[in-house]
Amino acid sequence: MIEFPEELFAVLESPLWLLDQQQSIKSKSQGALRIEQSYQLDIHRIIAVSQGESCARHPEAFICADCALNRHVSPAGFPFVLRRHDGVEVEFWGQWYQKDSQSLLQITLQQPVLAPAQSMFGYLNDAREAERKKIAQDLHDGVAQSIYSLMLETRMLKWLTKEQQSAQVKTIDQHFAEILRDVKNIAGELRPMTLDEFGLVPALEQFIERTYQMTGFEIDMTVSRHQQPLKESVRVAIYRMIQEAVTNAMKYSGTNVVELRLDFGESLEVTIQDEGIGFDDSADKLGFGLRNMKERAAAIAGKFYITSKPNQGTTLSISVPLIEHQKGCKEGKENEYLSR
Amino acid sequence: MNEIQRWLLTMQHFLTGDFIGIAMNVASANQPKEIRWLYAIGNLNESYQTIRLQVNHGVAGIVWKTARLQIDERIDGYPQKMIDYPIARLEKLMSVVAAPVISQKQVSAVLLLGMRTPYKFTEKELRRLLIAAAQLAPKIEEYQND
User: Fold this and answer.
1) Is A256 in the same domain as A291?
2) Cβ within 8 Å of residue A241, ≥6 positions away
3) Which of A109, A139, A162 is the last residue of a domain?
4) How many domains does chain A have?
């Protein structure tokens, strides 16, 4: 390793530690000093992680026994987590080089993979990728794993006695039913069949039931006046906007119930209201999610409003004129949707 | 009050946490699993009983699938986890650890310990949870045979 004057080493911005053969710190850079001031740091533990002797994610050996990371890291580049003094954990990337009697440790802050989007295009792109990731995970961790287990259970049949086989067939049957339910759930989340077959209100009823069952979150729906047929584009847009509003309420409102009102008059008035912690609704504070809802409403000639104040709950309103849509339904090909 | 509830009450000093819950499969034999939180102490209300999970969904569903200890000490600041972990949302938990209860080489229940402030579980606390899960196993078996 090149001999490096210690005074020069000390002015380096990058977090670097120079260690001797006994792994005692010989010198550290300015960046390293800053890291030491801000984080709970144990250099020897980081080196142990680089050697595969300690896991970056599970400090306790007994939890780490089957960890995928364990013993599969390289000193040339390995991930680990440091805790700030305020308790927040931050991900880093480490590199450890050793030559002769000296070693050098360099660490870099890992940038989040999904940095917050800076534009509407970025937001939509991220949303699409996040959705694909979720579908891929559901297929890989759910359906594929279950099919693999079933394959093993089926192969095992030939090793069992007649009596044992009967019990095993019952188990296999149960696991088939679980996979079928998983696949139906994935399809239902992507695009509920009810929305196309029976229309907006039945699809919402199903969504409300499923949300309550899976999460315990209550959606109190009221439908007033006579339900009217809606074009496919309107049905889908309203369904998706309600879905997003409910997801937002679950994530941020801190409450366990929202009110959903649909009023079919000359226009369809949709209101989604919670009594949660609210937020500052000034235009410059609106995220891309809400702006996207506004654009979705505009795409169906509708309007979207939001009112919220800290600790005063949130109300989202969507207004879509119905007369024009009815004309469109009657005149155009979408006449078939009138019955839905 | 049944045997499991009584056992849970005795555990509140052994497992120090804001919330302790037990999830079990409530589906009848040979039906797809439906996992529900049946017993809890330190709960804010009774809403946790409304959650119905499938294998691989929610903290309990993931434990059921993997048959391994699951720890999440970084719930706060990650809104998506309010969707992923319904129990964390309903009980306002910021840090959770959940252990499988194993009977006859299969997961028969999930034992969860949760905190309402950011918290890093110690090795001692994790070991205690595993001990408690092992203690709970025969009680679950007994309950299921009744």
Assistant:
1) yes
2) A270, A293, A296, A297, A304, A316, A318
3) A109
4) 3
Q: Which of B57, B71, B140 is nearest to B101 (CA)?
A: B140
Q: Do B89 and A170 touch (CB under 8 A)?
A: no
- Looking up residue B16, the CATH number of its domain turns out to be 3.30.450.40
Distance from CA of B139 to the nearest CA of A (A): 23
Digit-coded pLDDT (tens) for B131-142? 999 999 999 988
Residue of A62, A185, A251 with shortest CB distance to B83: A251
Asked if the Cβ–Cβ distance from B32 to A178 is below 8 Å, we say yes
Instruction: Write the CATH number for A103.
Output: 3.30.450
List CB contacts (< 8 A) between B83 and chain A. Answer: 215, 247, 250-251
User: What is the interface pTM, i.e. ipTM, of the complex?
Assistant: 0.83
pTM of the entire predicted model: 0.69
Please state the domain count of chain B. 1
Q: Which of B57, B62, B127 best probes binding to A when mutated, by most A CB atoms within 10 angstroms? A: B57
